[in-house]
Specification:
The chain is an alpha+beta fold and about 700 residues long. The strands form seven sheets. It has a six-stranded antiparallel β-barrel. Strands 6-8-7-10 form a four-stranded antiparallel beta sheet. It has a four-stranded mixed beta sheet with strand order 13-14-18-17. A hairpin with a 2-residue loop joins strand 19 and strand 20. The longest helix is centred in the middle third of the chain and has 28 residues, at about 445-475.
Length: about 700
Amino acid sequence: KTFVNTFRVESLDDVWYPLTGNWLFHETPGHAYYDATYVLSKRYDNLRELLAVLGRDYFPLPGGSKDSQENESILYNDFRFALGFYPAVFKGMETEDANFLSYLFELWKSTPRIQLTKLPSDDWEPVLGFDIQKKINGDLVVEEELYPDVVRSWIEEQPLEREQFLTFLGQSELSKNIQNLRHFLQFENSDVPDIDLEAIGSAHLKNTIIGLEKGFIHSKAKVTEIKANSEKHEVVKQIYDLVLPASDAGELPFPVLHSNNNLSFSSWTEQDLFTINTDDWDVLVRQLNLDKISEALNNAPFVYPDDMYMDHLEGLVDILPVQYVYLMQDCFPLDTLSYYQDWSIQNGIRIFRTPALHHEVSLQYNSQKYLIGKIDRNEYVKVNGAEFTSIYYKDKHSLKGLVQLLSENDDDLATAIMELAGIRETLSLVSSQSLLKDDPDNQSVDENSALLKEEYNRQHQQAYREEILARLEGEEKYTYEWVESFIQFLATYDEGSGSDRKRIGFQRVKPFVKENAENTRFFLLEGANSGLAPNIEDQSEYELELISEQGERKNIPVSAVIREGQDLRIIFTSELSQAQNKTLLNAKSIKLAYTPVLNLYRRLQAAFRNKEIIPPWEDFLEAIPPLSFIYGPPGTGKTTLLASQINELHEQNPLVKILVLVPTNKAGDVIARKVIENNENIAVQRLSVAT
């Protein structure tokens, strides 16, 4: 036994071989399927008879084979699916003969389960004539995965057991999962399967993508289209993530975007494909509807961009640059004053503000231009011209904000515009200091200077607010000082506060017709050159300022105004004379002047300045009578509620005296009328004084 592997034996083909590896006895069951080089000649039949006497059908020899030290050399009557047995002993399966499969199947069933040993799948490929690892039994398969017809027919005879046998030989154990995955991708209204894609393996995942392009054999479904960004699309992305590292990208089809936001699959070998980089794609998708993008591409061979496979597309697919053309819409020069013009000529720079930087987006592929749409892109655009460099920037940025944007890419431009910002700041301060001294009735003030004054006031107001906020943060909440600061902060948002006269210009004036008759007390002002304040009816000291045809200035007091949409009905204190009426109807310039009424915030602020005569804050509530506020927008019943409360007090005490203070004569008329309407027994004394 020690030297048994040095022995030689004669095979059925009359050749002597070392006694290693697998050897079968002559005339074993199914001997026609074995290679003669592994079958012993007839001279060894007595050895087989000896094994039969010993009650054995195979005999292991010590020493092991020359291919593996773990397996012993074996003499046997018939093949077993056990340790030490090699598929190489078989001649191989005839193409149209399933009997060999049946023979192997019976051997597999007869091998005791405790001895069953799964042999390497690669060892079976020369025997079966195909790589069983690539095969799947089912409807949703591609050509590479399809069993020969004779094998499929053989499986159908006993599908359950024979599927188990083929899986033992090396067919994927996840064939059912693969079919479920493809069913989900191929058919509509399919639920997402709970499948470990990585366990399926890259080969079958790759074939899944190929099947989505060309269709699966035996499937009655059409070639697949998948909605972009759907659950199916997400699964496809996961498949690419697993397949690409293990495959040649040139062998794979990729998702192509069609109209209605559908994706199909196409290979670069079938047609020329193009795409764009994912950065450009992200910009387009953020601002444009994906359906509109797909419609604009008009079924072009456009690969849906995704970071998952973009690196693999180089050399296979044309990655085109996106063409962005700035449309220059709604652009306004930064300024029209001479200082800006001088700076612009000196530096060769023009600056324009715009609400949005709209660009036309297109792709040029071969001779076809695809107009994708219009998007708002970037925070500024630089256009180089022969004489000037033009800068277009979004008006949400200040000039210093533009400087910061430019400093990232163009220091020279940033430096020049920083100089301009400094000039504007200096002019703003100088102009505001001088303009604040101007007569407010002086109509000859330069319009641009007024803009500078307005900007100065805005900046000053903002700085004042920030100062108050800092003070509020440092004070204990709800103390007297905190409330005083809080009211000061609210007052900064009181746009109607102050004592300066306000003016609104109108295009024309015409008599107001009432009950089919004209009355020279009532007129209608039309074509306001600015928006009417919501509380225009509640102001005071109305006056109509006119410039006659001869250039003379005339002022006529107005008793009240009533808003008529964007027009204004005015009521004079008395009927106009014939001369006044003519001057009014033929005036070259018509302006309504009025004095804004100080609002509650200002009055409270003024009251709090007298804190030296008010007891300490802790006793403040006890030192003053109860104070209530009624607040609400126009038409919510504030005046009605107040009149009702006055009448209730009168009913409780007919001798009660109530003082009602109102900011305008009109308001006094309204509250007096409402009190009398609901209580005929109350005495109302209406005092009319200048407000």
